Amino acid sequence: MTMYKPLAILLVLMLLMPTMAQDAEVSPDCLPENLAQQQSTFAEFLTPDFEADSEQAIANLFRLGAAYQEMAIRCGYVPNEPEVNTMLNQALEFASLDVLIAAQSVGDDVEAILVEFEEVFGDPINGQLLYNGLEPVLGGAIVACSGCHENGDVAPLTEGTWTRVNDIRLQQPEFEDYTVTQYLIESIVHPELYLAPDYQNVMPNIYSTQLTTQQLADIVAFLDSQDQLLEED
Fold first, then answer.
1. How far apart are CA 189 and CA 206, in angstroms?
2. CB contact at 8 A, 28 and 34
3. How many CA atoms lie less than 13 Å away from 21 in the CB half-sphere?
4. Mind listing the domains of the chain with CATH numbers?
5. How many Cβ atoms from other residues are within 10 Å of residue 2's Cβ?
6. Cα torsion at 159, 165, 171, 174 (round to 10°)?
7. Which one, of 215, 47, 233, lies nearest residue 117 by Cα?
8. 148 close to 131: Cβ distance less than 8 angstroms
9. For position 18, what pLDDT does the model report?
């Protein structure tokens, strides 16, 4: 699946173009002198020498083009419709739509996800929309977590999630070194590892392939906002 990542990244970059165009105004990487340096570096290490090794030269030609495209999009270039269609058609020649979607999913490596979380900002408002099935995830699916967590009959209540994790679950020895964020990530992408007291584990093990890193960060940010005073025994 890794071999499809660069193609899939281009598709996602297109979705992020408005944001990137704004960031490019202040990004040091997009200053003219830095762009020239990057272009020079790419050209030096990916020089297509067809006479010396035609097969390697063709590979370098492809990689050089991909590097230039990514650099241009990152610095605010908005591909026109024919260019977008060309990229989509090229991607679909080498991978099915399902593979492209899976390549952009957050995956189930919790440590890797935690590293990726350092580069994203979770939006609790969008997280609430995703949680309630009002925004689609990858492939247009709806997760609607609230369907099981709304009333507490099937799964633990949404309300008080952060408090229960922080004040109860993380006090257990097996979670001694966990943060609330790590616990929530793991419980979402590996629900088979978690059994909340008084509940059966009916949560499907599918969200690692349906959520992007940003969407998972948004849902975690929403759950982080769910605190309340615990009832005293």
1. 7
2. yes
3. 8
4. 2-103 (no CATH), 110-224 (1.10.760.10)
5. 6
6. 140
7. 215
8. no
9. 41
Query: Is the pLDDT higher at 67 or at 196?
Result: 67
- Token duo for residue 2: 């890794």
Model pLDDT for residues 12-68, shown as the tens digit of each residue: 544 444 444 444 354 788 888 888 998 888 888 888 888 889 999 999 899 998 889
Instruction: Give the H/E segment covering residue 64.
Output: helix 54-74
Give backbone dihedrals phi and psi of 194, rounded to 5 degrees, phi first.
-120, 135
Q: Which residue has the tokens 């929403």?
A: 222
CA dihedral sign of residues 29, 30, 32, 38: positive
At position 35, the amino acid (one-letter code) is L
What is this structure's pTM? Answer: 0.67
How far is 125 from 159, CA to CA, in rounded Å?
15
